[in-house]
Design goal:
Helices cover about 40% and strands about 15% of the residues. It is of the alpha/beta class and about 325 residues long. The chain is globular. It binds zinc ion.
Length: about 325
């Protein structure tokens, strides 16, 4: 059976995914602000050219695919991603879902019914029919739970993601605040909705070295996103490497994926990437610095391959299993 994975340039055979960074954005944009105050974004073609050059550089370091979890709330615009994707060899997996820490956009607040949440309908549409008229289908579902926890609207998003997953089989990846153990809240809601937790990446687990918390997430079956290499404010690269090495040593290489959560352009902080306060927060840090540091810390080539190739493949191709 051929197992296909949806990308910005169409479906590909899962075996072609190669080495995958499982949480990288291309553009993170406050759309309404940029449309009205376009001076910082500048020239559209210039931004596309910049993305093409950064992602080509990434491909040249041996990374074949990125999963871009830029959902509604982060400025997703698939036609722009298509323009980038058609000029590069690297594959981009696009996301449905919604990113909020507190409340839903007003659009959705009164569009809910117990039988069919407008959120679920949109998520399923992105997965089954594609994003608007682009012909590109979502390959993953994204949601977020941060310090405010399971607010009523955040809980609604999580349940809608779970329902879209159960209808389609499309896997789920998340944003969490690790210090407040939000991954456990997400697992609780997903279990209530009947989700198989092996088909969920709990994101931003690399932001903590609390092995007790990580062990609980692992024991419930999820994959951990060790996916913020370069965001030194939570943990330094050396600390992140140590946690990954410890978990590999305990036999959990088959439940971790690696990434930076970086982007070509993010308008949340002034300046161009790499941003002055975060010099390591760019696409190339894992290839150049983290993999050598993992090897130095005793992680084997085989375990690195498991985290970069086998786990992403198993996760992304699970969409072919369909709904349940
Ligand atoms: Zn992210």
């Amino acid at each position: 059976m051929t197992l296909l994975v949806e990308t910005a340039t169409g479906p590909i055979d899962a075996s072609e995914l190669g080495r995958v960074l499982m949480h990288e954005h291309v553009f993170v944009i406050s759309t309404e602000i940029q449309q009205n105050y376009p001076q910082e974004w500048g020239d559209e073609q210039g931004r596309i050219d910049d993305a093409v050059s950064r992602l080509t550089e990434l491909k040249d370091t041996g990374i074949d695919t990125i999963l871009d979890p830029t959902a509604i709330g982060l400025g997703r615009y698939i036609p722009r991603i298509q323009r980038v994707a058609e000029q590069i060899d690297l594959k981009i997996v696009c996301a449905t879902g919604l990113y909020t820490f507190n409340e839903l956009p007003h659009y959705y607040r009164r569009r809910s019914a117990s039988s069919a949440d407008a959120l679920t309908l949109h998520f399923v549409q992105d997965i089954v029919d594609g994003f608007a008229d682009t012909g590109v289908r979502a390959g993953v579902i994204k949601c977020a739970t941060d310090k405010p926890g399971l607010t009523p609207d955040v809980e609604r998003v999580l349940r809608a993601c779970a329902q879209a997953h159960r209808q389609t089989g499309c896997p789920i990846t998340t944003h969490t605040n690790a210090a407040t153990e939000r991954g456990l809240d997400q697992q609780k809601i997903f279990v209530e909705e009947g989700v198989d937790l092996t088909r969920v990446v709990i994101g931003h687990c690399g932001d903590t070295n609390d092995l007790g918390y990580l062990q609980r997430l692992l024991d419930a079956g999820s994959i951990l996103g060790m996916d913020r290499f370069g965001i030194d404010g939570y943990l330094t690269t050396a600390q992140r490497v140590e946690v990954v090495a410890q978990l590999c040593d305990k036999g959990y290489a088959d439940q971790m994926v690696l990434s930076h959560d970086a982007s070509c352009y993010i308008d949340w902080i002034e300046g161009e990437v790499p941003l002055a306060p975060l010099p390591n927060w760019h696409y190339l840090h894992i290839s150049r610095d983290v993999i050598p540091a993992l090897l130095e810390a005793g992680v084997s080539e085989e375990q690195i391959n498991t985290m970069l190739v086998d786990n992403p493949k198993r996760f992304l191709e699970s969409q072919n299993l369909g709904g349940y």
